[in-house]
């Protein structure tokens, strides 16, 4: 009966996790229920009836009665389930969070921009609001406002750069970035451009650029002279 209920719950958990495999809650439920299923199998296996032996009346001398091994105590099974579901699920959730952050670029980080800065190119106003340094990436949070009468395009792939004064230049990753690209007239958009890697640790000034703006009123946009502070260590 318990195994049936756990099986139904496991099916539901797999269905839930299948909607988003980066969700640590869904994966934690799946791992925990799989662990419970394994424990139930062990308990039932240990508590099962041993194969029947030939009747003692047909053997001489009669066989000495043997003690029947007891199954896993219920409290031990419960403690094992708690250990597997608690520690195992927590470890899996942590691993999923780490892998998910690397795949999406959405890792936690420290803001190294001392103050936000704005630059204007034609009808485009570009503002760099924060620069976050994470374990693997540099994330630039920015906004763009189009004051013109025509839409303009700010593509990440091949046209977004973050540069240090020493010439180090990072290129934006369009798959990890969350940037709308198109800016309709009279509209402000907000987003994040993700750059794999980091600028040198001693960088004090940097610039962010869209090297190509697809518009009739501007051909590129750069927010220069961004004041950078050291990222926390440890």
Mean pLDDT: 76
In terms of structural class, how would the helical and strand content be classed?
alpha+beta
Which spans have pLDDT < 50 for at least 5 consecutive residues?
76-81, 90-94
Shape: globular
Q: Can you give the helix content as a percent range?
A: 25-40%
Largest sheet: 6 strands, antiparallel
Cα separation of the termini? 51 Å
Strand content: 25-35%
Query: Helical stretch count?
Result: 3
DSSP strand count: 12
Tell me the series of helices and strands, N- to C-terminal. Answer: HHHEEEEEEEEEEEE
**Radius of gyration, Cα only, in angstroms?**
30 Å
Mind explaining what this structure looks like?
- Helix content is 30%, strand content 29%.
- It contains three helices and twelve strands; from the N terminus they run H-H-H-E-E-E-E-E-E-E-E-E-E-E-E.
- The protein has helices spanning 2-18, 24-46, 74-104; strands at 110-111, 117-121, 124-133, 137-146, 152-153, 160-164, 169-171, 173-178, 182-183, 188-196, 205-210, 221-227.
- The strands form three sheets. Strands 1, 2, 3, 4, 8 and 10 form a six-stranded antiparallel beta sheet that branches.
- Residues 76-81 and 90-94 have low confidence and may be disordered.
Give the arrangement of secondary structure elements.
Blueprint: H1 2-18, H2 24-46, H3 74-104, E1 110-111, E2 117-121, E3 124-133, E4 137-146, E5 152-153, E6 160-164, E7 169-171, E8 173-178, E9 182-183, E10 188-196, E11 205-210, E12 221-227
Antiparallel strand pairs: 1-3, 2-3, 3-4, 4-10, 5-9, 6-7, 6-11, 8-10, 11-12
